[in-house]
Amino acid sequence: MNERQLRSQARKLLRNLGYRRTPPPAELCRGLSGQLGVPIDLAGRSLPTVRSFGCVIPFPDKYLITYLTDLSVERQNYTIYHEIAHIFLGHLDASGTGTPMLCGSLLVDRDAPPSGSHYDQHAEWEAETLGAILSDWSKLPIRASWADLGRTGEALGSAFGGRGV
């Protein structure tokens, strides 16, 4: 899907769930759970050495979205919307076979040499784009900053003059 199609799908989702705008992440999980007939649980965890992480794990009887509590609330919201997008867009079903698939960085072959960006994977681009759309429509504060990437990010931000959003 392209961005226009993702916006259309997001409007359809919200309309079907009875929302005029994107609700907070936990409420959207409850609404989508009701539509799918499968619980979507949220589990925040602290991993102080990790910069950013979110994952949705499909179990036979539920989905579990994990995210970092060490991040700002704004970044946690954004991460949860991204993971909700994976569920809504059907990214966790490998080729329609019913075989569950973990999303995101857990799929990366750690023994392979680095190649391109994580967002070269179309499913990740779709989830990131839909997550951004839902975040924007929620009117909840969402913050992204070069500093979120640590010292290297701060140096890049200074070099490019960027301050994040």
Element layout with pairings:
Blueprint: H1 3-17, H2 25-36, E1 40-45, E2 54-59, E3 62-68, H3 73-88, H4 122-138, H5 150-160
Which shape, going by the Cα principal axes? globular
**Secondary-structure class:** alpha+beta
- Determine the number of helices (DSSP H or I, runs of at least 4 residues): 5
**Main sheet record:** 3 strands, mixed
State the total count of DSSP E strands: 3
- Please compute the radius of gyration using only Cα atoms: 16 Å
Distance from N terminus to C terminus (CA atoms, Å) equals 25 Å
Question: Helix and strand string, N-terminal first?
Answer: HHEEEHHH
Instruction: Round the mean pLDDT to the nearest integer and report it.
Output: 77
Q: What percent of residues are in strands?
A: 5-15%
Spatial strand order of the main sheet: 1-3-2
What is the chains' assembly state?
single chain
Which bin fits the share of residues in helices? 40-55%
| Low-confidence segments | 104-114
What does this structure look like?
With 165 residues, the chain is of the alpha+beta class. The chain is built from 5 helices and 3 strands, in the order ααβββααα. It has a 3-stranded mixed sheet. The radius of gyration is 16 Å and the shape is globular. It starts with a helix and ends in a 5-residue tail after the last helix. It comes from Pseudonocardia tropica. This is IrrE N-terminal-like domain-containing protein.
Features:
5 helices; 165 residues; alpha+beta; 3-stranded mixed sheet; 3 strands; IrrE N-terminal-like domain-containing protein; 43% helix; single chain
